[in-house]
Amino acid sequence: MRINKYIGKAAGICLLAWAALSCEEEFPVPESSEVAADFSITFSDGDFAPSVVVFESTSLLKEGITEVSYVWNFGDGTSGSGSSVTHSYDMPGDYRVSMVASTGADLDAIEKVLTVRDPNALQVDILFMDAGTMAIENLNGTSFEVDGFGTGLAYDETSETLYYTDADNGTLISSAVDGSAMTVVATGLDDPRDLALDIEAGMAYVADRGLQAILEVNLSDGTVSTLYDVASDGLGELPVGIDFYDGNIYVTCVEIDAEAVWKGNVDGSGITRILDYSGAGYGYGIAVDSVNKKIYFDNTDNSEILMANLDGTGVQQVIATSNRVYGLAVDNTNQKLYWTERNTGNVYMSDLDGSNRVTIGSGYTDPRGLVFIP
């Protein structure tokens, strides 16, 4: 039973009053339906306000019916007509959008709820490592303590597992999002900083500042091997930030004459510097935008987040910072960039181009590695 058809009279409410149609005491219900109303919703430029939405009738018509009129209520006090209409929503919110499809002898109405999202509202959970209080904080207000100083934080969405580094104890740890089921994955690390996950291969890649190396950790048995190091492979000194994409790791190094961004294949076939100090300064955090094929990285020397192509070309500033961005994450679903700033103790969000910057967390001691959970 279609609950939208002629329910107004039965409920004592005229569903069609907004469309300037009469609500008669004895409404003539046709013996058979000629139209079953339905429509599709398409966001032409994303579902964040301001947003342009296309509404298209997908109504079913009885064979032989060709003359149909469509009247719309957009849920914001405005209306329109036609089988296909476009409407702009300037403000976020939930809008009850209605359409009436009418033939000469029959009509049907349908209502759907349209959600236009607030571009400044957080759509995900944000977790980050506070190295000052030695805790992993969730911006929803929860947190749990860790055993030692840490920088790196990564999340496996498939198994809903957090991974993080403990530099004081030289370990890689896993746990649930709430800190339960805490497990030592690997030991024998020296000064592990950031880490990246290759879930398909079952590997974690860790930037070990003490060993001056990129370590490969088998997540199933905790086996640790050296993927690249300074002495044997020409890796830059003092690696800190790391991310993984499409068989390659991207690393930040902070030692003088080794700084900026390095790239290497996870098969160990070669590590090279794709950005030097003259092109990108030096900094800490790094994140890959796998959809737009970009890298975002911290340039602490000039207090900014930069963006470049995966080969290091096309460097441009995204946004100015206050210095030392360790945690950096790209959210393509919501078109957002998240980052921590150690000097301010704040966590920030912006659009991917750096616009619409918002402070989403403040008052922390030493915020470092950051992840988001959809």
From TrEMBL:
Q: Which InterPro entries match?
A: 6-blade_b-propeller_TolB-like, Cueball_EGF_LRP_Nidogen, Ig-like_fold, LDLR_classB_rpt, PKD/Chitinase_dom, PKD_dom, PKD_dom_sf
Q: What are the UniProt keywords, alphabetically? A: Signal
KW Signal (keyword) present: yes
Please list the coiled coil stretches: none
Could you say which residues form the signal peptide? Answer: 1-19
Give all residue intervals belonging to the PKD domain: 66-105
Q: What is the top-level taxon of the source organism? A: Bacteria
The entry's protein name is PKD domain-containing protein
